[in-house]
Design goal:
Helices cover about 65% and strands about 5% of the residues. By secondary structure, the protein is mainly α. The chain has one domain.
Length: about 140
Amino acid sequence: MSPLKHIIITTILVIILYPFFGLWSILAYLTGVLVDVDHLWEYFKHTDLKNPSTYTYKNLAHYYKTNDFDNILQIFHTVEFLLLLIILSFYYKVFIILTISYIIHWSMDFHFQITRNFMHHRNFSILYWLFQKIS
């Protein structure tokens, strides 16, 4: 899913949450948009880090469109990360914002992957990924 779509949806969410959480609502951008930093980690693992000309959004998008991934682990896109946010939201009010934003982000990504037959792209569990590695 494109970053622009995540930004637009998260901005709408911030506006909706603002009456309930005030300026804290801005934190929704952490799990609504910035959580995609794990895409960059995957990209940099397979890119020439000595060549700064590869550090463009165009190259990143091309990389994700042209590679056939097989169960990569993107740590911020896992069930375990979601469970951590849910648990923390019982103790800290700010994590309610992060959890709501994350669920929307994850749902958008999930829909994107289903509609494009791209479910093999990402492993949704750290434990399952580890199980695959050791078996």
